[in-house]
Amino acid sequence: MTIEYATRYRRASRIPAEPGRPYFIEKGEGDRAHLFGDLITIYAGGEQTENTFNFFTVEGPKGDLIPAHLHPDTHEVFYITAGAVRLFVEDTEGNQQEKLLTPGDFGFVPKNCPHAYRMERHHSQVVGVAAGPGGTFERFFENLGAPAEQLGLPSEPVIPAPGRFASVPERYDVRFLPDHQWRTR
């Protein structure tokens, strides 16, 4: 039996809206969204953690580079559970690096550091955790992309209109860097 809750973000969710309440979610049954070619599943967010951290997965096919961006107040973790993901990151002094991460590998991106990633193999999966004084950004995915009721990757990529990259993200501690160049590759 699965309990569903209504939240201010969704008509139905398996995640309780109020903090301090234990809960369990079966694989893939969190709040889902499609963005680009990926499926993002949120298992815990700001509502449950008093805006201290979020926990989500990103699954996707081999594809294009996710646009360069940064989080002014949020630290982000990348833990790879399937496939391969190339993480690009730049520190606050402008030093760039990239690393191919495979299952069991971990990447940490401090707040205010530009970063991007690319799925390098089909059926890649990242477990993400983000935390910081600015709150959490998990609702960014469904506000820039599209909420998804069904399991699985989108049948067509969900590409937001260019103007949305400037408006929606600022509410979620995400700042896109459209002119950013990666010198590492």
TrEMBL record:
One of its GO terms (molecular function) is dioxygenase activity. InterPro entries: Cupin_2, QDO-like, RmlC-like_jellyroll, RmlC_Cupin_sf. It holds the Pfam family Cupin_2. Keywords: Dioxygenase, Oxidoreductase. Residues 60-119 form the Cupin type-2 domain. This is Putative Quercetin 2,3-dioxygenase.
